[in-house]
Hints:
The complex is a heterodimer of chains A (about 290) and B (about 350).
Chain A: H1 2-37, E1 39-43, E2 46-49, H2 52-59, H3 61-95, H4 98-109, H5 116-127, H6 132-140, H7 153-177, H8 181-189, H9 194-222, H10 226-231, H11 239-249, H12 253-278, H13 282-286
Antiparallel strand pairs in A: 1-2
Chain B: H1 2-27, E1 29-35, H2 41-50, E2 55-61, H3 63-73, E3 80-81, H4 88-95, E4 98-99, H5 113-122, E5 124-125, E6 128-129, E7 131-144, E8 166-168, H6 172-181, H7 193-210, E9 214-217, H8 221-229, E10 235-239, H9 240-249, E11 253-256, E12 263-272, H10 278-288, H11 291-301, E13 304-305, H12 316-325, H13 328-333, E14 335-336, H14 344-357
Helix pairs in contact in B: 6-7, 7-14, 8-9, 9-12
Amino acid sequence: MLQKDAQRLSLLLLLTPFLLWILLLVVLPQLGIVGISLREKVGPRQFTFGLANYLAFVQEPIYWNTLLRTAVMSILVTFLALLVGFPVAYYIAKIAPYRSQTALFLLCLVPLWVSDLVRAFGWIVLLRETGLISGALQAIGIIKGPIELLYNDATVVVGLVYTVVLFMIVPLVSTLNGMDNSLLEAGHNLGGSRITVFRRIVVPYAMPGIVAGCIIVFMMTAGSYLTPILLGGKNSMWFTEQIYDQFITRYNWESGATFGVLLLAFTSFVVWLGLRLTGQKLATTVAKD
Amino acid sequence: MKRTRLKGLLASALGATILMGLAPAEAKTLRLLTWGSYAPDKVIQLFEAQYPDIKVDVTFSNNEEMIAKLRATGGAGYDLAQPGFNRVASAQLEFDIYKPMDLSKITPGRIDPLLMERTATETTVDGKVYSVPHFWGTSGLMIDKTKAPSVSGWDDLCDPQYKGRTSMRLKRTILLGTAFAMGKDPFAAYGDLGAYQKILDDVTAKLIACKDNVKAYWQGGDDLTTLMLSGEVVAAETWDSTAFRLFKHNPNIVYVPPKTGAHAWIDTFTLPRKGEADDAAYKWINFVMQPEIVTMMSATSGAIVATKDGMALLPEDMRKAVQAAITEKDVEKFRFAPGVPPGIEDLEGKALERIKAASSK
């Protein structure tokens, strides 16, 4: 009996930091944001309760267009990250010799040692009109005049893929690592072509990793701020920028909070939809049997 | 006996707590919330040498972030802020984040009386003055005169001749400038939101059409500096101080007051409502208004200090840049933006969003 109590106590103690963190730093601020988003401003320092901020979002095409744009581009980034990340992960987990696996994995981590901001500025130095790439291309003689590679949507997508691809690779490597090579051999022995083996064995096995990677990458992209702002041009409004603007430049906390809630709800919805469409469950990505 | 000892213990514990509570106020840290380059290290060192009991702690920010930061804490966390003069009264009305200034504590006779009065008029709420001026300057245009000699008005940034070679900042200055360039007077419409919206609609349409002409919207002085010095941009909206600083690096880059008049601004000293070191704040204000400090301040910020002899005390190379750019006539045409009444910023924010979100071909 006493032992059971002790067990329970140690469990509670171990959980406490996590619970405090979740409650104080995640749940409470979110509730605060929801609270502010339901506040209507009637005059200086006077507020009433209401849904006006949500209505304003629906009525203003700029806002929901930006949200849709952000979502579409985030999905594109997620897809590209999967496309780029899968071969890398497969190589690290299955093809590379066992001894170099750790080194390769570490190599993937190297870009993370530098802050987001510095990496974005790295891209700027490379891609700007008077930048390295434009200069090099001119020196070789491929192009005549300087070329501007910054400030467009393609640059934003490339920059984002670069930032997030690692978060695709890590879950993929860990799932693929668990796959028994004999499964592949069996597939080949039974006459499966490379494509069939890949489609029927590798992909289904890696599915939890793919789903986990996609969710992380999508959420990170939709919530990213620096890369779209620094690399994006005059047209590329990202939804997070909209939120920042509402809070900081327009002093409109109510509407900023509304946008925050909407971003969370919308991205959650997209993830749910993605899971539904691919027939996956969130549980299978976390718990591996 | 035992009882009294306990009491004594309690009392001393209480005393200690009170002392601890007071300590931060007495330790004198001056937490300054200001613009980048408005508090150079050298000046801070001199100040700390003169007042060894005060330590200066600087946070760099801009108009909007200053207000946002102070609003989040109800005016706590900083002892002295430097918002623009036309943003103080509305922020005070809306969020109650400042406290009135005790003008008797400012060393008399140093600050330019005209700027002082203008600041006082704009920052008076309920009969109390909230700010004194520190730096002043103008917003206008910056050109590389070898490549864009014909740019002389706000709307010239939209001249197709310089397609992809101009830059501006998507903030209220460009809205106002474009309105003036279109022959309208937005300041006159400040009192009438409907009329102001009409002006804004025209300006928005114009700036959306102009989007194609703009290479990028700059966000801060560093952005703009790189764009201009690399030659990627040949004409841009600018703060005069940024242009004056670039003159040193490339004498072809000059400041041009737009023909409809440059927009003058004043950055102030204002006390946050829950500031804890007012004395130190006043000491800092008086310290930086001394002639030898004024020159140092101007050298890093590129702006003119609001003392009577602010112009004369500019560092040598900057005085040249100013003389190359601004004539007496330009000074007469300076437009001092009146305080922004409530509601205006909402309309402007919407207009700016529309411009940013619109797509150019």
